[in-house]
Model the fold of this input.
Amino acid sequence: MVSKLYQDIKNTLFNDVAPFWIKYGSDKINGGIYTCLDRKGNIYSTDKGVWMQGRTGYTYYNLINEYGYDLSWMEIADSCSKFLDEHCIDEEDGRMYFTVTAEGEPLRKRRYFFSECFYVLTKILQYKVKNDDVALKQARKYYDFLMSMYVNPASDPYKITPKTIVETRDTKALGGPMILLNLTNVLINLDSERKEEYTSKAKQLVRDIFTFRHEETGLMLESRLADGSFYFESATGRIVNPGHSIELSWFLADAAYILGDKELLCKAEDIFNKAYDFGKDEEFGGILYFKDIEGKPVEAYEHDMKLWWVHTEAITAAIKFYDYTGNKRYLSMFQKFYEYANKYFADPEFGEWFGYLRRDGRPTEPACKGHTYKGPFHIIRMLVESEKILKKYI
Done:
């Protein structure tokens, strides 16, 4: 079983998904990558997501880091990194844009700092594969920038009306400490000079993350009040995103391995298992997007859809927990998740994966392979992690 899965994953990574984005998304004129691609790979919008430039740069630099030099990988990674530097940073405040035009003219900024997070990932991998000290300097600069805004949101130089009136309801989102923990895990491994500092920050981020855990159910809420309490009188305060929790579980597992914390690994396992049990679709298979912790209606109209990234995170988490614990139950879960994804998300006719499925597994129409949020990141990250681990067991 393991050998067959390994060969399929290796083939999908090197002969399908990684080449797909280079072939159809590379912008040879302006630099960077287009990610709004229809089923066949045709570009249906030339606007560029800044997240995607950072995610793509990271993804292809990481492929080089894991598997060795490849000209096409280096070209797309370098192109995205250069596009980020030249077009995606607002010189007035240092914050990054959310979307830009094909040529790099700014279109939109958002309060979230995910653009900066993926910029750091690109730069730290650029440093690793090219021994580029300038890239390292940028990675450190923006990591410090991110942490300062996280610790003190008022220090954010990009002043924008908050999502809610803080005097009425001051909320915090799980996404902040979660993405910063993943980022910190990567930096611990790649920037040895500041390992002690990153390790200290990782421990604090772990503590912050667990303030979003609902003790009675063991589930992770997407938001809470600034004072640490939950607000179940509002529909937004009861939201659980099972895929997010599953992704978080393997971020925590990686942190547990780095920190040598067995108790944290057990807690990460518990988050994974409870999130999957809560989010699994007993009728049609797969994992639902959003659920209300009390079983009440969910406002988001896409709540019962199946999304590509949710399922890549389930695959990644399962294989990582198998590797970390040796429990063969996780290997069985890995196979189950991967077979579901191959059956419903993978497109053998035109390559890559569909992004969105209806609850019953049918792709939304017209189907697409990418958009502002979907590009060469989640699937390739899952394939790389799976390939590395399975290779040890064949």
Summary: The radius of gyration is 20 Å.
